[in-house]
Amino acid sequence: MSLSGLKCQKNTWALFRIIIILQYYIFYYYVMFNLEEMGKIDLGDNVFYIGVDDLKTSLFESQYIIPDGVSYNSYVICDDKIALLDTVDKIMSEEWKKNLNCALNNRKPDYLIVHHMEPDHSALIKWVLDEWPSVKLVATSKAIQMLPNFFEDLCLDDRVIMVKDGDQLDLGHHKLTFYTAPMVHWPEVMMTYDVTDKVLYSADAFGKFGALERCGFRGSDDADWACEARRYYFNIVGKYGNQVKSVMAKLSGLSIKSIRPLHGPLLEDNLSEYLKLYDTWCQYKPETEGVYIAVASVYGGTMQAAIKLSDLLKTNGIQKVVISDLCRSDMAENVEHAFQYSHIVLAAASYDGGVFTPMYDFIHRLKEKGFTKRRIALIENGSWAPCAARAMCEQLSTFKNLEILEPVVTIKSRLKSTDMPQLEALVKAMLT
């Protein structure tokens, strides 16, 4: 290569390096100058989403597995008066503060509306009140009573607006109406309806597990909203179906274009489907005609019988059959399935003069969540003295509106050809 060619090549390489460096700095300053703007999402009409995703917490409420995290949703309405709707969990406080300051754009909030006092939504109440001494706290009487439980030395003199059903707050353009929602799923809960935008801020109702970056910001972005929403509902809210039903009736006359919960995507499209599901769930009606088989098997014999039952059900035209191994699966998901299906089979080994512990725990959870209005079949296994069915029946006797199907199937250690008439008779009973 000639000297001039080599020089040209070096100049080209130097120019390329300069371009790369310039691109880096342009990108850096773009991000730095726009980072705050990225902390809020404009929902239109001067309403901003300032919530945060939590991918750090592995167990929601220290018991529910959340592999895709969870969102803590919070909103700001910037009107003549500015309303902040809820705070977030302390674990995400710094990110939330940045989002809030970005949305406020050097203005001060006038109101902090508290929909729910659970710490994942209320951890920063005191910080807001300390940061802006002119802020008024808008909440139910029960929420105000609960505040000292969480915050010491909180002075609320002349800083509280106590609201009840139908009370309104005028922000200027936006007109807010409040609806109490006791025991959905705490006693102090309320919802807010924005009359102007026809938006319902629904507290924990219509929420679901999953960080928004994983499940989508809007319901239409969510591939399967109902799956995690169902698990969330029946494990957290489901015991209070009658209370949910009452609130649904209270809201039935409203024209709702969007539902904005405290967890999960914002719901705008297909609202009728979300409302239909909640109506089904709160009445404890089966969502799916089919059979859920919950199995607590020690050495595999009980599982073998459950699989054979599943095959027989499918042969007889029941295609929706789900089997769960209670010993190796998420118990909250098992509770979800039990509420979803019209029929449930409890198949368990005998153990210590009763029933194998995972089944005992499962039935206990169903009791705690208000399980009702289902047909239940029982399969027990015992090598020398089968007693699982008796123990399960004792637990189930305290439930309301359950039908225990006959026959109760008993096997000894392993399913045998002589056991088949029992299984076939049980299938027949489930089909009638």
Integer count of domains: 2
- Give the averaged pLDDT, no decimals: 92
Going across the major beta sheet, what is the strand order? 1-2-7-8-9-10-11
Instruction: Identify the quaternary structure here.
Output: single chain
Largest sheet: 7 strands, mixed
Number of helices: 14
CATH topology of the largest domain: Metallo-beta-lactamase, Chain A
- The general outline is elongated
What's the CATH class label of the largest domain? Answer: Alpha Beta
Beta-strand portion reads 15-25%
Report the CATH architecture of the largest domain.
Answer: 4-Layer Sandwich
CA-atom Rg in angstroms: 28 Å
Task: Please give a structural write-up.
- The chain is of the alpha/beta class.
- The protein folds into two domains: 245 residues, Metallo-beta-lactamase, Chain A, CATH 3.60.15.10; 144 residues, 3-Layer(aba) Sandwich (Rossmann fold).
- The protein has 14 helices and 23 strands.
- A seven-stranded mixed beta sheet has the order 1-2-7-8-9-10-11. Strands 17, 18, 19, 20, 21, 22 and 23 form a seven-stranded mixed beta sheet that branches. It has a five-stranded mixed beta sheet with strand order 12-13-14-15-16, covered by helices on one side.
- Helix 7 crosses helix 11.
List the helices and strands and how they pair.
Layout: H1 3-34, E1 41-44, E2 47-49, E3 52-54, E4 59-60, E5 64-65, E6 70-72, E7 75-78, E8 82-85, H2 93-104, E9 111-113, H3 119-122, H4 125-131, E10 136-139, H5 141-150, E11 160-162, E12 168-170, E13 175-180, E14 190-194, E15 199-201, H6 212-215, H7 225-237, H8 241-251, E16 258-260, H9 271-282, E17 288-296, H10 301-315, E18 321-325, H11 331-340, E19 341-351, E20 354-355, H12 357-368, E21 372-381, H13 388-396, E22 400-404, E23 409-411, H14 420-431
Parallel strand pairs: 8-9, 9-10, 10-11, 15-16, 17-18, 17-19, 19-21, 21-22, 21-23
Antiparallel strand pairs: 1-2, 2-7, 3-6, 4-5, 7-8, 12-13, 13-14, 14-15, 19-20
